[in-house]
Design brief:
Elements lengths: L17 H8 L3 H10 L6 E2 L5 E2 L2 H16 L3 H13 L4 H44 L2
Antiparallel strand pairs: 1-2
Length: about 140
């Protein structure tokens, strides 16, 4: 089992409608269809009436895509990563490089945010100190 596969807690059901997936993920049905259309999602099974039926594995993939989105990874890179996954294990080195590049970007943004937080903390402390000084008799 991969890290991604362990994130979804299946409730005995392994087929979900698009509306159920939208409820579980917070993504709109439009976004889910778009992900499928651009190749970010693997082929989604269909019922005999043509209704999309997502599996727990699809939900796990969507959870991972959500994490990639939070990193700020461009959609084109996410689609490329999905293509590499579909191509198989021989793409591990390229997938690793893509994720390492994203990790470097995230670490850079975290450093920027830590610097920003330090400035905010300084300003807040300055105002709190000034307020305390003005309240003294």
């Amino acid at each position: 089992m991969t890290v991604i596969e362990t994130s979804t807690q299946a409730s005995g059901q392994d087929r979900y409608t698009i509306s159920e997936v939208a409820d579980r993920t917070g993504l709109s049905a439009y976004t889910l269809r778009w992900y499928e259309r651009i190749g970010l999602m693997p082929h989604i099974d269909r019922s005999h009436t043509g209704q999309r039926r997502y599996s727990s594995r699809d939900l796990d993939w969507l959870a991972f895509v959500g994490k990639l989105r939070l990193t700020g990874m461009p959609v084109a890179d996410m689609v490329r990563y999905a293509e590499l996954v579909r191509e198989g294990e021989h793409t591990f080195p390229e997938r690793q490089e893509l994720l390492e590049r994203t990790r470097r970007d995230v670490r850079g943004r975290i450093a920027e945010l830590q610097d920003t937080l330090a400035v905010l903390d300084y300003k807040i402390d300055t105002y709190a100190g000034a307020r305390r000084a003005s309240e003294r008799p």
